[in-house]
Amino acid sequence: MTTERSAAQALFAGNRTTLAGYEATHFGWSVDANVATITLNRPERKNPLTFESYAALRDLFRQLAYATDVKAVVLHGAGENFCSGGDVHDIIGPLVDLPMPELLMFTRMTGDLVKAMRHCPQPIIAAVDGVCAGAGAILAMASDMRYATARSKLAFLFTRVGLAGCDMGACAILPRIIGQGRAAELLYTGRSASGEEGHAWGFYNRLCEPDALLAEAQKLAADLASGPTFAHGITKKMLHQEWTMSIDEAIESEAQAQAICMATRDFGRAYDAFAAKSRPVFKGD
């Protein structure tokens, strides 16, 4: 039994990884005190995505499921913009000439990025300034929370290039954030929504001053990273899974999820701290 347990532990340990030393080539990456910051860093073009950055972001968010040193993620853009979407010359131009099977490969790959963001256990906070358009708007939408500035411009631009608004899960996720009618308006018209409008509609959790935006998002991420991070992962999973459940199914699933959390050491730490009239120090186990 001991040998079998050791083999299982070794197998599990082999899946765990640290990402502080991850070498990103298509965006900026840093880890500080368990908070990872991803920087879309082509400010001269308003931080557009390329074929390579789509795939690299997808792969990174998949790896985060096994990371031991990242407990929360901040996603932002360099300069005064978040992301202008898919690069017109590097992506839109080549797509015009691709045959259908390869077009489907591309759209599935971009959708896989959203899946990876939704399935990684860490909370993701998008710090949105300036232009947040097309696929950039999708990245913000796919994040768990969004801080923005009054000058941010949210636009789902797909209809402006002759495409449907149903891109990368927009028709499923956006209505759940801002409501069906408001989502329909943005997806049909492709118009820009201001920071104040996005905040009033519930798309943004908070509006910040531009020079304080990243620091405020990182502070929220640090607060989450110092909390019961295993339980945060369960919360994220249930927020995602319960979209397709009945109320009875959701209540039962939450009963099971909460029982799992009650078996963690963090739950015991919280009780001990309460009894001692002190603040708990969570470790995520």
State the gist of this model.
With 285 residues, this protein is of the alpha/beta class. The chain is built from 12 helices and 9 strands.
Plain-language structure description:
The chain is globular, with a radius of gyration of 20 Å. The protein has a six-stranded mixed sheet, with helices on both faces. The mean pLDDT is 93. The chain has 285 residues and is α/β, with parallel strands linked by helices. Helix content is 50%, strand content 13%. Helix 6 packs across helix 7 (180-189). The chain has two domains: 2-225, 2-enoyl-CoA Hydratase, Chain A, domain 1 (Alpha-Beta Complex); 229-275.
Q: Notable features of this structure?
A:
2 domains; six-stranded mixed β-sheet; 2-enoyl-CoA Hydratase, Chain A, domain 1
Strand content range: 5-15%
Structural class: alpha/beta
Specify the number of helices. 12
C-alpha end-to-end distance: 24 Å
| Helix and strand element order | HEEHEHHEEHEEHHEHEHHHH
Mean pLDDT: 93
As a whole number of angstroms, the C-alpha radius of gyration is 20 Å
Number of strands: 9
Low-confidence regions: none
Which fold name is given in CATH as the topology of the largest domain? Answer: 2-enoyl-CoA Hydratase, Chain A, domain 1
